[in-house]
């Protein structure tokens, strides 16, 4: 994996070589049309940007030569220096020197720039009158110099999207061919399919790697944002950033940008107190805000923490009842993690009292939807008076997902691993009916369990979520899934294996069914529906409430 410095250097070189080519082109045009102000302005802009970029990354010789050339063109633009043949020669040679410096950026043996040339640049820059300029004898620009092209190219992200989609199709066909070769037992076909497997896998990961960007490209925008919001709110905030080098798919980073901005704004506006309030609480006047990225197995985790007000669980429980999400009795037994999960419910925070005590609910359902859309997870941890932490768990790629395959009623399904907590086998006697639903004790935790066939296929009026008699066999395979800090056990008929799948969107009219996040094709040729765990969880809760109401 590339370091942040290496990535920045490659970007700098690619841009610098583009500037170099553009400068040669524009100066040649300016020689023909010396009065064209637009050309002068563009040359000046290119040199100014090159100077600033080179200085920022530590290439001071490039920055110095760019600065001299920038000053020379500033004099020409201000009519203080005539664009004569002699001057043009020196300027072209200065641009040539920039090209040499850029091409030899890693060459430790590359010497100092030609002192005759630098003297002429200094003469042009330091003298404001043509009459005082006596340039040293110089060589004319040599058009026979070797040409070279940059080793880096820029490519539109939509082209990479198209490539990844094609690879997705290839992965599906690869799995099919591998399955056929195993069935036929043909040694030659096995050899070819094995080779195809290696090539496809390498191609898949190469394209996925080409789409990766450093999270630092987003994180580096936040110091200014935090400063501006803090000033507007009359607060003092220190921002700590960590994990700049963590890599993630560019599209995923784009999708969560607005969500992260919303969370940062909320943390400053509603979380961190004003300086005088913090002093009264015994805190430092300056609030602490941290934005951390880290790798988490096959995913990327982004954590936003503040040391502000925290969230009052008592008030949240009260709001849950007032908004008719749960009864008073049910809310009393909710663990803190589930209480906080209601902050992400649509419409939860419309009433003013919620934003007055926490300020955490405004728009959090929109943030949740954005994270759900890319197959990620988000949850919140908080302690009243001490602060709040939002955790986003994101996939590194949105095209290929790790999934658990299983079967219900002779239909193949897949659940993304990011929502899968564990798989357990339990005897029917270990399942108990409580409040009209089945529950099970899983490693000391009471979890609601539902037979997936019944949830997906049985009509509301015929549904009996607590009826064990509908289950097949004495031992049940249960997949524990997690969404919004709520765990749900899904009883399935058969468990298969974990596998990377390429998820394709459903065609109309099936795309209107929220329970399914897409479809994939297995190596056996069977169509496999991909369950949308957030939708399944929400659907179960609404069905349970409907049945309870009847």
Automatic annotation (TrEMBL):
GO terms for molecular function: ATP binding; phosphorelay sensor kinase activity. Residues 195-398 form the Histidine kinase domain. The keyword Kinase applies. The keyword NAD does not apply. One of its GO terms (cellular component) is cytoplasm. Keywords: ATP-binding, Chemotaxis, Kinase, Nucleotide-binding, Phosphoprotein, Transferase, Two-component regulatory system. InterPro entries: Bact_Chemotaxis_CheA (IPR051315), CheA-like_dim (IPR004105), CheA-like_homodim_sf (IPR037006), CheW-like_dom_sf (IPR036061), CheW-lke_dom (IPR002545), HATPase_C_sf (IPR036890), HATPase_dom (IPR003594), His_kinase_dom (IPR005467). GO terms for biological process: chemotaxis. It is an enzyme of class 2 (transferase). The modification Phosphohistidine is found at residue 48. Involved in the transmission of sensory signals from the chemoreceptors to the flagellar motors. CheA is autophosphorylated; it can transfer its phosphate group to either CheB or CheY. This is Chemotaxis protein CheA. It comes from Pontibacter burrus.
